[in-house]
Amino acid sequence: MSIGQVLRNALLWTLLTCSVASAQPQGGNEDVYFRNRADASKYALIVTGPGASEEIGIRFWQWSVALHDTLAGDYGYSSDSIVLLNDDGTALGNRSTRIDGSSRREDIERAIADLRQRLEPGDQLTVFLIGHGSSLTEDAKFNIVGPDITGVEFSQLLDGFQEQDVVVINTTSASYEFSEDLSSRGRVIVSATRSRAERYDPVFAAYLLEALTNRAGDRDKNGRVSVLEAFTYASQSSLAWYRDQGRLPTERAVLDDNGDQTFAMEPGPGAGDGRLAEIAYFDWPNMVELKSSPQAQQIYAQMQDLERTIFLLRADKQNYLESDYWARMEELLIELAMKTEQYNDLP
Q1: CA–CA dist 248, 242 (Å, integer)
Q2: pLDDT tens-digit profile, the chain (347 residues)
Q3: Neighbours of 36 (CB within 10 A)
Q4: Other residues' Cβ atoms within 10 Å of the Cβ of residue 198
Q5: Closest listed residue to residue 141, CA positions, set 154, 123, 128, 125
Q6: Per-position DSSP letters for 83-152, written without gaps between them
Q7: Distances (CA, A) of 12 to 169, 202, 333
Q8: How is residue 213 annotated by DSSP?
Q9: Alpha helices in 222-321 (DSSP H)
């Protein structure tokens, strides 16, 4: 699919969905987050804890390596921009070139400190947590090799990324309270569960991976997968899995991206959350498809910024008079269409 076709589909999707109920006022200015600049880089940190059994450990490793290879193969990440910390530092007792260390606290701290030195302002860090969690004590924890790490402690490790965009996807059991401790302005936080009682191993990670594979979660067909799209795909697929099994769901995924520690099961218009998740992408455009001239790249960057502004406006509809909202939306859509035509006309 060409860039022109992708953008026309995105434009059509926007037109079809602009009439939905709007988001609640967010408060504060979120224009500084997830700018999707052409010169920004994206990094992934995958931390996988030990399994409670050999079977579970195999499952965790399979998810981890599949996620690593999907990001590297389909989303433009280099081997240097993916850090995988797995169990005791091996793949079920075997060495693997994909693994950069263990899930011990010292390796986690070392990896995050290294990323803090490497990431430039405006870069994006996405953290994936795979394994077991616990919240039976006062402090919710992510189970790692050696002493477990609490949500408060992990949040403090992320405090060094004040000039970067941060996404954390916690796929563990009993993940909610740990994730709640990570909530902060400008961060997109996903939790596979929504309460302490949901302590059984979730299937959310499997469907998150499915959402990323072949961009199955790309709901608006713009050729990219946002955190909101992947969350929606994985959440709905997880609930469908329980329904198909004839079982009551023991997990309900939730998302927070406005820093209020209140997570939404259905983020998006009307939910108060989803504003940033909708403009936080796992990847950046495939550079092979982009035109190489400086003029084309400048116009494409303007197109990306316009699309982002359209999403933010749609999420903020309630703060506008109806006539003002549609006047501004029409203005943006026309400008995007003109920029797209200008881009397509370039050699």
Answers
A1: 6
A2: 444 444 445 554 554 444 433 333 334 455 688 987 777 899 999 999 999 999 999 999 999 999 999 999 999 899 899 999 999 999 988 889 999 999 999 999 999 999 999 999 999 999 999 999 998 777 899 999 999 999 999 999 999 999 999 999 999 999 999 999 999 999 999 999 998 888 888 999 999 999 999 999 999 888 889 999 999 999 999 999 999 999 999 999 999 999 999 999 999 866 789 989 999 999 865 544 567 787 887 787 788 778 878 877 877 777 788 888 888 888 888 888 888 888 888 87
A3: 20
A4: 21
A5: 154
A6: EEEETTSSBTTB--TT--B-SSHHHHHHHHHHHHHHPPTT-EEEEEEES-EE-SSSS-EE--SSS-EEHH
A7: 29, 35, 10
A8: G
A9: 227-245, 294-315
Q: Can you read off the two tokens belonging to residue 338?
A: 């003109």
Question: Can you give the pTM of this predicted structure?
Answer: 0.83
Sign (positive/negative) of CA torsion 225, 226, 229, 230?
A: positive
Q: Residue 332 has what pLDDT?
A: 87
**Cα–Cα distance, 90 to 314 (Å, whole number):** 46
Listed residue (91, 84, 3) closest to 44, CA to CA: 84
* Cα–Cα distance measured from residue 92 to residue 299, given in angstroms and rounded to the nearest whole number: 48
What backbone phi and psi angles, to 5 degrees, belong to 72?
A: -75, -40
Among all chains, which residue has been given the structure tokens 């009307």? 270
d(CA 181, CA 263): 12
Long-range CB contacts (< 8 A, 24+ apart) of 135-139?
135/174, 135/176, 135/177, 135/178, 135/196, 135/199, 136/174, 136/196
Q: What are the phi and psi torsion angles at 256 (to 5°)?
A: -135, 130
Query: For the chain, first and last CA: distance in Å?
Result: 18
Max CA distance (Å), the chain: 63
CA distance 115 to 62: 24
